[in-house]
Structures are given as structure tokens and as C-alpha cells.
Amino acid sequence: MAKYVFVTGGVTSSLGKGIIAASLAKLLQARGLKVTIQKFDPYINIDPGTMNPYEHGECYVTEDGAETDLDLGHYERFLNIHTSQANNVTTGRIYQTVINREREGAYLGKTVQVIPHITDEIKRRMLLLGGDGNYDVVITEIGGTIGDIESLPFVEAIRQIQWELPEEDVCVVHLTLIPYLKAAKELKTKPTQHSVKTMSENGVHPDIIVCRTEEPLTNELKRKIALFCNVKQDAVIEAMDASSIYEVPLEMLREKLDLICLKKFQISDIKEPQLEQWKVFLDKLKYPKSKITIGLIGKYIELQDAYKSILESFIHAGAACEVKVQIINVHSEFITKDNVAEKLESFDGMLVAPGFGERGIEGKIMAIQYAREHGIPFFGICLGMQMAVIEFARNVIGLKGAHSTEMKEDATHPVISMMEEQKKVKLMGGTMRLGAYPCEIKDGSLAHKIYGKVNISERHRHRYEFNNEYLQQFIDKGMPATGFNPETGLVEIVEVPTHPFFIGVQYHPELKSTVLNPAPLFVHFVAAAKQYSEKRTANKMTSAVIR
């Protein structure tokens, strides 16, 4: 029988429920338990696939093609496992299922209500992953904040599960905020008390309270929280702000979060956590031997979470190369011919980010041209790869009017276009290539050097493809395609072999990068940027000596 942990949040959103859930899962996994995590989001969207990144951050895509919450990226990066559609559930999906059943007559003419029909479907999905015997512990993160009206059905479902299952099978972890008032020079516990009170009024009593705080919690404060929130004092956990999310598992280990959960589950005689590789990674992350600067060219740069997986991939690759990667965001909408050199000349490498729509694409094209002509290491992902294709078509092949039919339906030269079978699909998500697809890499290419093999699988999230009618012209002019989908012949990778490092990929390699397995493309891109930086520094020193 699987054990269930429910992670809720109080006082405010964005406290890091996903990081606490992933950290607890990492500690339990390191002790030899089989663990998975799932996210229940209270919004009515079926999934975040149609949301603007400014609304909800990046849309994370799983192996099976589910468009999910970005917290699933943290789960995979921490646990080094794959999640699936079953790991992310929204209110929209719950209601859609119940309404479809009602239309089919599954409820035998009864009045369909939030209790029991909606809560029964929530409970079914909460217990689904634990029912197949593959996991010892299932951790469920509940999105939103206690007190939100849309979260009430999920809280009620937890209450029912607490009541239905044996006491030792369920543990509720409540993450809350202990604000520090500078004027009074005091940490205040009242918001936490109110949050737990609201939770208790809904029938759910937390077993553990994790307190986000800027200042250390004294034993007196812990005792006060325990007394007013009806938990044991050792179940009040301090979660100080950390310099990196990857330090949080070790902080939770020091606070004995995993041991308190195991005690609640009545699990004993378990091995000490094996975290040696994690500590080696942290050591390299904290003490890099050099530093590089990468320009991230995108159009959602105002919100850090819009490119979350890319930023985390740079952290993994930087640690692997023992180099600190400083990311400088450059808004592609504000790149012009007059300022492109000023904005980009100081970078050791450039990544042109994915995205949708017309806004900012001409700036991306100018940035790619600058990187190509000045020998700066370049890496394009999805739309970034497509813009590299358009730039090369216009400025090297000479195809004036080359464009993508996503932005210009009547393009003179549609070097990027939608496949015919996709054009007939009307649902927004239906026209996408989503999830993992195979790719065959040409022997001897840069991609082959990077991956060390010819058959790979990477995740996709896009509608438009390289137009193979133009493929020979690209080969003839020096941008060969070096990766193809073996089933459809669609282009997955393009390169410029005469350039020190120039590669664009149609897929999203950042989605599979983890602490223990950094994405090879990011590792080699960082290494190329490091080499470029060292060479540029050496040239400057030589010039100084000559003068």
C-alpha cells in the first residue's frame, strides 16, 4: 500500500511548494523508496498549453506529450525520472471528466454535485498513481493558497482521504510564510496561525508546517507555532531562503523533514540517504573555476519562469563544465540594426529562445546574423532554430522574402511551414507535435559529437516545420540538416560546419536536463562559450602586449 503526502500552501502563493515537494521526494528517494510527485492545479484551463507564459510561466512538456505545470520540471530535475499526463491534473480536467460522464448517463439521473461527484473524481486521481504498486510514496502538491475559493474541492478531497485511509498512510505538509517586519525587527507567526485555522475549519489538520523565512526561527517561535497550530514542535520546519533551489534538499535533511514523514508513516529500519552525487554537483555549482556570459534572446524575459527549464539547464551544464554561467536577458523586440552590435558583442555565446507569434522575431533574426558572422557560439531552440533557418535563407542563400507561414501566410519563400495534415486540425493543442519523438543524427556531425550516438529521443512542442522543398539549397550553401525524424523525414537539427559552434534544434532539449544528467547540447554549448571566452581574453592580452 502506497503512502500519500499532500503539500499545501498558505498566506501567499509562490512560496516554493514545488521545491519543498521535490526536496522531500529527493530525500525519500535517496533513502531507497520509490517516489513520484503530482501537481493538482485549481485553475479551470484543461492544461497550461494555451496560456501566455506571462500568465503561468513556461509550459512543461512530458515524454507522453502532456502540456503541464512548470513544477513537473522541478520534479524531473530533482528525481531524475519521467513524469506523465497522470502527474498533472487541473480543475478543468476534473470538471470535463465529470460532465462527460453525466452526458453519458453514468450517474443514473442523479443530481451531479461538487460533493460527492467532483471530490470523488479528485480522490480517484489523487490515489491513481499509488494504486499500481510502482511507488512507495506519492506526493501531491496542491496549487494555489489555502482560503482560495477554487481550492476548496481539493482540500475537501484531502479531508476525505485523511478520514478514509489509515492514519499512518497520509501526511499533510503545509508550507507557509513567517514574515519579518523590519520596523519591529520581529518574525510574525500570526499569518501562519490564520492559514492553519482556515485549513482546520475545512477539516484538514497539517502534520508538518514548513515555514519560509528570511531569518532563523528560534525554539521559542517554533514552540509558539506548534502550540497554536496543533502540531509537535519538531514538526515545525525552518525553510530559510537558499542561494540555489538545489540546496533545499540538504536544508530539509538538516531539519529532518523526511524523518518526520517516515515516523508518521511508521516506516523504520531504512538506510541513510545516498546524496554523494548531489553534493558533488552542489560543490561544482558553488565553486566554479571560471565565468562566461550568455545572451538569452527572447520576448518573455520580464518573467523569469517563462524560460525556467532553459535557465535550470544552464545551471546543470555550468556545474558539469565547472563554470559560472551568467545569463543576460535581451528583449528581441528592441534589437535593431543600429544597436545589435552594442547589445551582443560582449557575449561569449547566444541562445535564441523558443516562443510563438510574430512579436520580436526580426530582432531574433538580426541577433542570429550577428552571431553567425562574428563567430559567436550560437544555439537555437525551436523558434530559435526556425529563425536561424530564415536568417540563412535571406542572407546566405539569397531568398528574399523567406519567412515562416506562422508569421506570414503568403511568404514568397516559406522555408518554415505547417504540414498539410496539421492544417485540417482546429483545436489549438491538436496541431502541435507534442512529447518525445525519435531523431536520427548524421555520423560525423556536430550533433553526433555532442550526443555520442546516432539515435536519440527528444521532446517537442511546436506546429511549424522546416520545409524540405528547400533542403538542397541549404545543403549547397553550407547549412546542412544533420538530424531527421526517421518516420516522417522532418528536419530536427541544422548546423553551420564552418562556424565554431552553430546549431539549431527543432525540439526542446532543456526539458530532459536534470542534475544527474545535464542536457548534452547545453553542456557542449557552455564548453564552446568557455573556449570562445578564453580565446578572446588571450587575444586581448596579446594585443595589450603588442601595444
Give a verbal description of the structure:
- The termini are far apart.
- Helix content is 38%, strand content 22%.
- The chain has 547 residues and is of the alpha/beta class.
- Strands 13-12-14-15-23-22-21-18-19 form a nine-stranded mixed beta sheet, with helices on both faces. A seven-stranded parallel beta sheet has the order 5-2-6-1-7-10-11, sandwiched between helices.
- The chain is globular.
- It has 19 helices and 23 strands.
Quick tags:
seven-stranded parallel sheet; about 550 residues; nine-stranded mixed sheet; alpha/beta
Topology:
Elements: E1 3-9, H1 17-30, E2 35-41, H2 53-56, E3 60-61, E4 67-68, H3 71-79, E5 88-90, H4 91-104, H5 114-128, E6 137-142, H6 152-164, E7 170-177, E8 180-181, E9 186-187, H7 190-201, E10 208-213, H8 219-229, E11 236-240, H9 248-254, H10 257-264, H11 276-286, E12 290-298, H12 308-320, E13 323-331, H13 340-344, E14 349-352, H14 361-373, E15 378-381, H15 383-397, E16 402-404, E17 413-418, H16 420-423, E18 433-441, H17 446-451, E19 455-462, E20 464-466, H18 471-477, E21 481-484, E22 491-495, E23 502-505, H19 520-546
Parallel strand pairs: 1-6, 1-7, 2-5, 2-6, 7-10, 10-11, 12-13, 12-14, 14-15, 15-23, 16-17
Antiparallel strand pairs: 3-4, 8-9, 17-20, 18-19, 18-21, 21-22, 22-23
Helix pairs in contact: 1-3, 1-9, 4-5, 5-6, 11-12, 12-19, 14-15
